[in-house]
Amino acid sequence: MSLYWSDLVASLTPYVPGEQPRLPDLVKLNTNENPYPPSPRVLEAIRQEIGGGLRLYPDPEAARLKNAIARYYRVLPGQVFVGNGSDEVLGHAFQGLLKHDRPLLFPDISYSFYPVYCGLYGITQRTLALNDRFEIDVDDYLNAPDCGAVIFPNPNAPTGCLLPLAEIERLLAGKPDVAVVVDEAYIDFAGQESMSAIALVDRHPNLLVVQTLSKSRSLAGLRVGFAVGHASLIEALERIKNSFNSYPLDRLAIAGAVAAMEDHAYFESTRAAVIHSRERLVRDLSDLGFAVLPSAANFIFARHPDHDAGELASALRARSIIVRHFRQARIAQFLRISIGNDAQCAALTTALREIVGDPRNESP
Ligand SMILES: *Cc1c(COP(=O)(O)O)cnc(C)c1O
After folding, report:
1. Do 299 and 181 fall within a single domain?
2. What is the pLDDT of residues 218-230, one digit of tens each?
3. Which domain holds residue 250?
4. Where does ligand 1 bind, in terms of residues with CB under 6 Å?
């Protein structure tokens, strides 16, 4: 606390990002980064952009990037907004679309940044409990007595569970008077076919879909996110952005992000590799007695019936493997484990086998 702080600053409870320790030989499975490097074309495009041109401001509209995203998703450039990571895009959505007199609804277990934005922007929030399979029940939202807007991640974080598009469409159709933001940070890992709710934006003017290049395109360090929705929702975000920072994406970020959206082959092969590793890891951990929620993301959410999750996380850390453990009601016995490359997944499985023992090797 300081004499110089505003009342707002004094009232904030900021988000705490997953730790980024810089230790050699660390198996880092705690922040859902992609284990594969960005596309070589991305690195080449960024190199090409380095030069005297950095003297000049970037395009405030980032038109090249909006066009590339619009081409990829077969929407109009006027239906696309881009920002400095999807966290910034979400922030603008909270301020510009989700703040109303009636409360913003989101799941009790979801992205822990949402309550932080509510605090920053003075938004009334109400959380609705996931069902006992840790799924979003759309009826809870449709039946909520008081609803100013809705946001949820899909797949949800940190559970990894996917809400089918038909259920999202039922919500959109049942609540046509409220904005619904679907945070698709992990949607590219849901399957080879696109499961994105972007397919619904032309039919539902209340839908904003937010995505990021941080996870499925291996660019967490470049900070690029985007939103797709009806042009009037996009205009709301542009009005906030142009009242806050006209140049959220720098020249290197625009060049790299365009190349990332255009390198289809690299994107398809790395996401297929992550999905494949996830399926194998689910089998291996299930064999060790873990219960693993069905994951459509680049992480899994797992618990062991006989071992405390906090103790498992510490035992893994002692072996230089870090995973995420949330000391939060309902999920305190779960670990969220990012999907690494094959060597990292194997190191995790080996360590957990040492810690919990292999039930198949135990005599009855
Ligand atoms: C990682 C993540 C984001 C933020 O991604 P950035 O684009 O890196 O800011 C947003 N929502 C969810 C649910 C995430 O897990």
Report:
1. no
2. 999 999 999 999 9
3. 55-263
4. 85-87, 111, 153, 157, 183, 185, 212, 214, 220, 225
